[in-house]
## 1
Amino acid sequence: MNAPLLLDRRAFLGRSACGIGGIALHSLLAEGMAMAARGEEVRPEMFQPIAPKAKRVIFLFQSGGPSHMDLFDGKDSLDKLHGSNLPDSVRAGQRVTGMTSGQSSFPVLKPISPGKRCGPSGVWISDLLPWTQKIAGEICVMRSMHTEAINHDPAITLANTGSMQLGHASAGAWVSYGLGSENKNFPAFMVLISQGTGKNPDQPIFSRLWGSGYLPSQHQGVILGAGKEPVLYLDNPDGVTREQRRATLDDLAVLNTRFGEQAADTETMARIQQYEMAFRMQASVPELTDLSGESQETLDLYGPEVRKPGTYAANCLLARRLAERGVRFIQLFHRGWDQHVAITRQLPNQCRDTDQPSAALVMDLKRRGLLEDTLVIWGGEFGRTVYSQGQLGSASSGRDHHGRCFSLWMAGAGVKAGYAHGETDDFCWNITKDPVHLRDLHATMLERLGIDHNKLVFPYRGLDQKLTGVEPAKVVTEVLT
Amino acid sequence: MMRKSPCLLLLLLTPLHAQERLSYNRDIRPVLSKNCFACHGPDEHAREAELRLDSADAALKGGESEKPAISPGKPEESLLVSRIFHSSAKKVMPPPDSHRQLTAAEKDLLKRWITEGAVYEGHWAFQAPVKPALPQGSDLNPIDRFVAATLAKDGLAFSPEADRATLLRRVSFDLTGLPPTPEEIASFEQDREPGAYERQVERLLASPRFGEQQAAAWLDASRYADTNGYSIDGGRNQWLWRDWVIKAFNDNKPYDAFLTEQLAGDLLPNATEQQQVASGFNRNNANTHEGGTIAEENLVNYVADRVKTTSEVFMGLTMACAQCHDHKFDPVSQRDYYRFFAFFNTVGDAPHDGDGGNNSRPSIMAHSCLANETEANGIRAELQQAKAQLAQPDPAGLAAWEKGEREDQAKAGKDFKLTPLIAESATSPNGDPERIKIEDDGSVSIRGGDYAAYNVMCRLPQNGQAVKGIRVEFLPTEAAKGKLGFAGVGGLEQNLVMSTITTSASSFPALNVDLNNSLPMARISASASQEGYGPERLRDTTPTNGWAPPTGSTTPQYLTVTFGRPVDPGSTPYLTTELMFNFGGSASPARFRIYAFGGADDASPHPADVTAALAMDAAQRSPEQQARLEAYFRTMAAPTAALRYRIANLEERLSVLTQEHSVMVMNTAPKPRVTHILERGVYSSPKDEVKPGTPGSLPTPPEPADRELTRLDLAKWLTRPDHPLTSRVEVNRVWSAFFGKGLASSPADFGMQSTLPTHPELLDWLATDFMANGWDVKALIRNIVSSRTYRQTAVASPELQKRDPRNDLLARGPRFRLSAEQIRDQALFTSGLMVERLGGPSVKPYQPGDLWRQISHYGSSPATSQTFVQDHGEKLYRRSLYTYWKRTLPPVSLAVFDAPNREICSIGRASTNTPLQALVTLNDPQYVEASRAFAERLAKLGNNDDSKLAECFLRMTGRAPVEQELVVLRGTLKRERERFRADPAAASALLATGESPRDPALDPIEHAAWTQTCSLLLNLSEALTRP
């Protein structure tokens, strides 16, 4: 390790908003895509009392609030209760959004589709998700997730940054900050966005969901888009070739090296490396998005939409390719799960978009040996109400938001396969066993990466900020092997 | 090496002189605060064993054990010492499950402090600053006396003064945000009289750019943005407040007035219009109009943000921590928090407000404080000239345009074949599904007016023929009274207005259009159009703009879109079209049918009379026809667009200078809300009612018996001379702008968790002097930039870098990367593209694609700013502080350089170094265009390569290149010339970047080679650095 450079990097960081001593050591290292670029291992021992099970995370974020009782938590009781009014004793004073607070009755709506008991756990999975049914033996369904938020903005912000308040760092940024990059051709945290066909346009999403908050901005997620320029500003200007760019960068490096040495400016020396990485990205990103090397069988596995850039299917395949290339945190955002209206039409469409590609990703990772050190998470910001929003049975009816319980699934990285965790009551309204808060999910995710969530901190505004926030969080050890 | 680093960090916190007596504030409190106060500090709810270690009395008394935790001078009798050294995991403090751990050095430190007598000190930042005596020394500037004294203790001395080129670049960026011009550099170099540097400083302080540069940082702190932030994130208009900030800095408004007007301008006696505008500071918070959100929760969020911002920006106090519980570290109780909250809870704002681009209440109409008649007159003259230019006949331009259009018309209708499509699905995301009906003939009918986006999916005919485009035919219905739509707007009765049309093709039946794969629209035509609603309006995604058939039509009218590339029905048999009717006023269609077509569209993109006139020889046209054609050319044709943009921009500017515009302000509601303490900060758990007040641990304001305290009382309290925080926090913030970090390193947190200032006496001297000088901001800045400390070279020996890596001791000059705004502004300025206008509405320069639409609620909401509509003309070249700030997707090329999203207040930016930054300055069209314009500027200097290279180098770095550098650049130029000579088409392609016109007389090969060379110089690390 080049000591003066390391010291200077700290000096450099010391000027940041958060200032003195505020930057944990490992961040100085994680800092260093420049250092990673020199092939130096940057594992922060001080934050890894736990042997890591996961090298990376693929978070398949389903934005809008997938309906838990329609997808993963269907039960016979709902058939019997269908049409009856949700008793006040069950509702337990739960606040409801402004969208149904004026409703005079709350009739129970049973799952819109039948389902099956699947896999060793016998977990119920809807027939709307036939491919997910097939991987029931690989996944752990968490049926007892909960959140305080009942509206999208705070809920999705909590699910992705650990807080309903604005200004916090996203989970991916925390992981980038904590562990740095595992490769020298891509950023540590990449984001892929798709629109659901269930509802379009759905609720908006925000760059804060992959933002760096108070962490240094290089930890923010970089969007891998679908256009001809997947990373913004990646392409040379028209008329400029790669050879030309190479030659220009060589000249630039000569001039910069001279200046860096004369002015004793290590920032400049680091910048030369950043320009080199930019040049490498110009090759590595097109190579990433070029699917010509994928077999027909693999493409078929992800389904018919896989060849169309920007679809969820294409993004799932790219997630695997990013995982292979050592990207630390890969997050998909898929919109369209907000079924307030026309749930019987919209939800099957949403499922068709996502079911096969999600399952294909798990299968594909598994057969390539990547699932054992990749944590895959599928889920959204909350669930939906068991009662019908709008008249029961009307084609235009749907379900409102519900934070008291909802379902998601995880796979890989030593998470129990073919397992179901937590239970809800007959109404899928309250949790009856093993509640898991979103911050427990974050703690568990960090644990898989070998990080103690209480130790991955960033001092800011007088507080040791953490992804899991100030309330106690616990690792869900019951779902881990 | 790596593992030792935390110890190095600690070294900086510990006394540099081992034998010096320990200081509670400097050495002990940081250790206790970090490790002990969470359980044994000010938060009584979290307190363990009734023990408090943050006050001497309590620590001496001890907790529930009733034994003293600290016995001064007697470590062996101090429970604290025995517990921190305890070997049992059950007994040792802090307990292992707290995840806190004292190092051996910290334990020794605590023990030694108790041995020395355990003297507590009040927290430095909560004691009123007292002007310290100046240290002895020869320096005239008091700043230098303090810095020199600290340096002397460490056996260090100032570094030499930076050379003039460096100094001028440094101070020019710091004061105006722009680099010096070659003329300014020469004038400084040639000025050998005493006071040369001071003269430069005065020139820069007097520049109107000074206010722009200082405002940029204030916009971050005050979370200024152009959108509402939460959820749908629609547009707002708050730029009048930004104008106020710029002018306040330029006028050198004393800081106490600057603070008072922003916190309470509306409450000042006989408040002026501009004082009310200033109060908009506390309306910069994010808000929402979304109906599903809960009113009380929204209002609590809005006020909580005002507390957070006000306390961090003006007091350096993180009061937000006390929203849910007593502050863990600082003496701010939850009651204190809600008393402070009560100051801002009296405003008459609404929980759901600000839709459709309208400002949320309360807002007023006001003039820009930057309006001035001189500029307005100049604009009027320019406008007159531009309009005259547009009115001027342009036979050559017209003839060239006519030729192109005739060629287009000649192709129209060739092999044209229409195939009606059967709609298989027709949906609207938020509309009532029962309203939409697919008729037996495959057309779609809508029952009644709506505000919606209709997504229609059709199967394409499998006849092996490529689909060149679609036609949408609108049909009359009885429900629409025999007309085409339901509009109830004057002049558009029973009509429709389509805002946008977007189409994608897919391999499966996609019910919604795929924005990632929307088909480009090469040509749009209509059977006929309502005046002012031509088909080309569909290219602009602004909701209030669109295509309409002639009002009153009773026969079918159609719109035809030719795709940029044909669709192959074999691989993508499904076509989904989204027809967006965002105009409002129920301007949605009654019934429509979609056709696919092959061949070339048979309709004209122009109105019928224009099409007819175009088809004729000029000689055959009647004078009326010729006049009509010329008028159409002037008002609609592509070649005159640039001039029309210019006129529109000038008209907007004139309106900025002469008209009233809306701005959000503070007021007092007729029936102000009552403030309660909220348990755990939750809006639905109100506890005790509280009245406005300031934290009890700080000096208290006089509380009048007959009324409650107001924001004006708060402002007066903050600006009292004995307030310990206000002045210190501001001088520290100002200092950090010039040194890259503050004397106290956490500018928004002067609380117990903050580290001690590196130069506490200097900070106090500056703070007291600032107040004594009448809070004179320019005087403070003049003092800083004139100091020897500031003027030192940043070049340091490896020994010094190693010894003081963060430059805490200030033995060298400050050097850092330019800010996001400065990097872009420099490129615009040096290339000559920049259009400098002070103030005004935000602008939308280049941004790739429509990133906003990818994440927004477009089509479901009348909110503005759901799609990105790029500006043209001068608005592409304004200074970056005027760039439109959408909070949920801030300007990407600025965000890459660490600009925050402005959802919340942020003070001071990180300065990172990433590959994405390289991609921006190398490839963003804004920078490529700047390189092209720069090259054109150089071309005017003649043919001497070396002198042109030197000029470019000078503008970008502030110094002349040396021979070694010229050798490299000559090589670049030679290589690029050869490259473009071999491929002239590549030269033309490169030169086509950007919308500014290029001088066609320039040799493209030469111009392209120089463009590349300028791009290289724009990317020099030195050019990105403020030295």
## 2
Amino acid sequence: MPNPRFLQTAERWKNQAPPEERNRVEKTKRAVDTQDLDYFFLGGKLGKETHDLIVKKYGADSPFVTQNVVYDKNVGLIKGSKLGYIIALNEFLPDGMRTSTSYDLQKAIDGKKVFQKGTYEDLGLVLYNESGMNEYLARDLAGQIKDRQELRFPALINLTGLKLRFENKAPNGIAFNLGDESQIIYAPILSCSNDRKKFSKLDGDGLPIFEDNGDHTFYAGSSGLSVLFRDRYSDLYARDRYLVYSNADGRVLVCREAARSKSGGK
Amino acid sequence: MANKKDTLQDKVQGLYGRISQDFYLNRDDFEANGQRYNSALLLGTLTELNKGNMLLFGEYGGGKTTSAEYLNAVFNGLPLDLVKRVAIRGNPQLTEEKMVGRPHYGKMHKGEEDVVWQHFVMIGPKIFDEFNRIPESNQAVVLNGVDRGEWNYLNDFVSTGRQPFFATCNYADRGNNGLIPPILDRIDVAVESGFPGVMNALHIAQDYHNDKDEILRNPELTRKALAILNSGKSYEEAQKELETIVQQQQTRLRDAGFSVLSEEDKSKIEQGVRGVVLDRDAEQYFAFLVSEMNSSPKYGQKRSIDNPEGDKQNGLYLNATFAGSGSRREEKSLIRYAKSLAWLQGEGEVNLDHISQVAPYVLWHRVRWTPETEQTFRDSDRKDPLDLHIAKTLLGDGTSEMPGVKKRYSESQANYQRVIDLAGHGKIDQAVQEAKEFYADGRGHPIFLDTLKDLGGR
């Protein structure tokens, strides 16, 4: 039997319009989950070619996309990482390839496909609310999500499926567009109240599973729009990064459907 | 001179301004809705309007007692010398007989029992100076009086009703004691009487004989008042006669340009404050705060006998940062003071700024932060005493390391509103289902656990 005082208060506090039915397809299962994937840090011929295409489209000094991300021919690797670059990269990657999610990176580390220590990787966006950090982009993205489905904070947005949009009013002149494949995951675990909790494993959405004596630490954000990334010690961050920041420790992890690559891409 | 068209708010602001400009020189350190105040004087003013209880901390000679004396004198039409005369100065030898009442020794010799009430009890607005110099065991003597205005001695009692009560405390030194938690819980708000700034200090120092107080003093009326108090008349009779003294002093103050408050004004103010309501944001912030202070996913609810660190595994909410729990008195204090602040600002509704700005002053003296919480903030840059600084930070936006209640409120409010909307539109099962999802087995905000309990889902 509900507490009548709660119901009285709810009657007073409620919005006149009844809440919309929640869109139950807000979290789509990744089609690639069940597939055999290869993981590698972007480099070699593919890295060089895609980098050139990105530079051609966005310019070599675009703060939001290319600034401080370079192809290092000495080691044959893309060095540096920022969200804009990764989203742009997805435009140019061949079929069967995409950039990685948080889940992918953990899988790559566990499978010893990459040596992550000493590098950082950008993995997604976390939308905490519509004000504070990166407010313009937060509001813009929140509006797009609301048009499509119910928005609940904090929301994890994977980078695959996102597009860049030239937008004069946006800081740096670029904003995000949700694509058809965009995955928006309600992720209460990324809430600021879980700041500095320990974890060793991630769940199927790439979100931390907390345990008292975990090997890594999660650092939560609390407002606006934040970058989700793992740092050189594999700690998971949803705060303290400028969207345009990049340095030479950044790496871009790419996933390739292994079966397809072996068969020449069918 | 106060204009007849002045609203009651104008009158109160006028008194606040007069004390601030001419008597208790200070610096502003409190802001609500764009208006700046001095916290000691503002909350002291609200204490007068509310007939509340206030604790003033500060250094020796920092103006704690002085501010309380001015407030009681100006807001209640009492001669300043009378206010000083009836205040109690705390010391370890204070007994119930010196504070509350004593046997009538003459009658006692004749085998009769009668009580002589101390002036401290007989005069409404009260000041207990250096409160923490009385031993903890004697602090309980004033418990009921402070809380309800009921004073007991032998088989007699006097009911004064709630009256403004100010207690001053020096910071810990060798001569003072801790304040017992039941007393602290009965104190509505606590403030620090801070350093007023060099120029104000220069001004204060040059008035070394307190000549400015002359306008508030009235030795003749004080003598008359003491004669009434010593006459052996009953409390009710004495109060009636004291009213004449108050009226005479108020006339004098009015002539000196003070916007004096009559009893009728005070009654209207009380009604006005009662009529102020909380807007939805203020009520929901209150709900989030209360849920964090009282709920414990690990132990069922917050208790002073449980280790608060145990709740850390469920997230860095307020419940993991202090020992003990919230109290119903504390919540009443918060609502009362937030409402009176809104009233003073001429608002019909308490908004988020009113309630979140007042909240730290209601909590900081009541809450025992864990050593780990204190350690986190010990070396941070701050303007306030450590406990108040922690309260302001953790009840506001917090830091990047320890987010605050206001931040969590802004983060989870949309989700909470959805549950409220579902329940408000009769979709109880769906509200339970979504509250469960938002609570996320203890990882979500404790407000959702509380909601689940209210909806019968737990």
